[in-house]
Amino acid sequence: MEPLCPNLDLKPTPCSPISPGFPKPTSLLLPPHRFSCSDRSVSRKWRVGAAKSEAHENSSQELFGSIGKGFLAFSVAAAASFSLCFDSLAMAESLTVAFPVSRTTEVNSVQRTLVEAWGLIRETFVDPTFNHQDWDLKLQQTMVEMFPLRSADAAYMKISGMLSTLGDPFTRIISPKEYQSFRIGSNGNLQGVGLFIGTEPRTGHLVVMSCVDGSPAARAGIHEGDELVEINGEKFSGVDTEAAVQKLRGRVGTTVTVKVHSGNDLGSDASIREVKLPREFIKLSPISTATIPHRTPDGHLTKTGYVKLSAFSQTAAVDMENAIKEMKSQGVHSYILDLRNNPGGLVKAGLDVAQIWLDGDETLVNTVDREGNLLPINMVDGHAITHDPLVVLVNEGSASASEILAGALHDNRRATLVGHRTFGKGKIQSVTELHDGSALFVTVAKYLSPALHDIDQVGIAPDVQCTTEMLNSPKDSMLKEQKSSVSSLEADSCVLVAEHELDIQESKGTAS
């Protein structure tokens, strides 16, 4: 993964690093500092509405933001490894923090990580009130709590506890081992069971966002919306998602036992079942396509291109562009883009995919920084590769970058949305690798759709809903016969509704 700012220039005031030999409280000076950032090349051009928002453009280069590694001296650990770069960042004021230094070497190392994480939160967290608490005092309190500890694990728990007081489930720290798994997963090289999981913000429960087709989880009948109650006998309600992911992954040939609460009956203990899943190599291909024969209301037989995007990986935009070009060469003249159960991924990939379908200088998304400034991200002289009619399918499992893409296409009048209200994750995280190999996820901004609709905890409502009852419509049997070569789609009511909406777009002579 490329760092967000490979040429990080940080010139701090020097001071001595912590040593485990210090028997008494030590003072740490956090000096004023400035950041400069270069090498901002991207595959597609964006224009950002204000200079400070360039951080958000670049912060979208990795899964929830960007990964920037760079440990400097511990004296400036709270300002080091800064993953977001601004052209004109205000000078931070100096701060002296006194705290007791642990004599236990491994705890002392985690103290260093604590200060590093605390400083990143102090400079970038979206809520400048830190959930209405004194963040400087919080560092001192956590340091004191760490002092008597004798293990790194216990010390890391103190960092997690400090972060939990921010009231944001997406701001968290993960261990070096978990971070390595995170990087492997985002690169598509997985050994596991094929589950995408997330934390339901209101309940803290682990829920299944989607399953990889053909994976052990899919073959076992696990579905989106199901709740993971236990993994190998350990209860996981209220536990960080990455910890659960770590339990699910493992060497090929081994197994993991999970207890699943059916999404259809979450109020009943009878709906809990235990499943033993083998771990296998999981191939994460973000794009799958099909060509659907379609007869228009006037009797003409046409072709509709179906594109399923399961995640926003590094190759998503390129893969989609290639898929669209291939379908165009086969005579496709309308498209269905399926974002159902797509939990998100790289924000940059979402913006790049949007530009495949849009022209001009359209706004793709608006970000809101910690000062409340509205910062639009616009295309620069965009050129869509097709202007054919487009329908986008969404549901409760469409989250984050999926919602950014759906909002961009809908609000710019390029596509009709069909399905169900989306998940509602309207926050952007940066991801920074810390000096010890752990990683800190920090919510750095909120985002709004181009039409300034708030998405967080609200989601995006579709233009047209689809229900299972629609399968009984008179048009259904005719369409099923036409689509015998795409059997996985023939009973999908939302695809049928999408085709109807494409007919409407065609009749209006417009692509939106």
Can you offer a commentary on this structure?
This protein is of the alpha+beta class. It contains twelve helices and 24 strands. The strands form six sheets. Strands 4, 6, 18, 19, 22 and 23 form a six-stranded antiparallel β-sheet that branches. Strands 8, 9, 10, 11, 12 and 13 form a six-stranded antiparallel β-sheet that branches. A six-stranded mixed β-sheet has the order 15-16-17-20-21-24, with helices on both faces. Strand 16 (301-309), helix 8 and strand 17 (334-338) form a beta-alpha-beta unit. Helix 2 packs antiparallel against helix 3 (135-146), helix 2 (105-124) runs parallel beside helix 4 (152-164) and helix 8 packs parallel to helix 9. The longest helix is centred in the N-terminal third of the chain and has 20 residues, at 105-124. The chain is globular, with a radius of gyration of 24 Å. The two termini are 36 Å apart.
Helicity range: 25-40%
Unreliable segments (pLDDT under 50, ≥5 consecutive)? 1-43, 50-92, 468-485
**Rg, nearest Å:** 24 Å
Q: Give the mean pLDDT.
A: 77
Assembly state here?
Answer: single chain
Helices, strands, pairings?
Elements: E1 9-10, E2 26-30, E3 35-36, E4 46-48, H1 54-59, E5 95-99, H2 105-124, H3 135-146, H4 152-164, E6 172-174, H5 176-187, E7 189-192, E8 195-199, E9 206-211, H6 216-219, E10 227-231, E11 234-235, H7 241-248, E12 255-261, E13 272-278, E14 280-283, E15 287-295, E16 301-309, H8 316-329, E17 334-338, H9 347-357, E18 363-368, E19 374-379, E20 390-394, H10 401-411, E21 416-419, E22 427-433, E23 439-448, E24 464-465, H11 474-482, H12 493-508
Parallel strand pairs: 16-17, 17-20, 20-21, 21-24
Antiparallel strand pairs: 1-3, 2-5, 4-19, 6-23, 7-14, 8-9, 9-10, 10-11, 10-12, 12-13, 15-16, 18-19, 18-23, 22-23
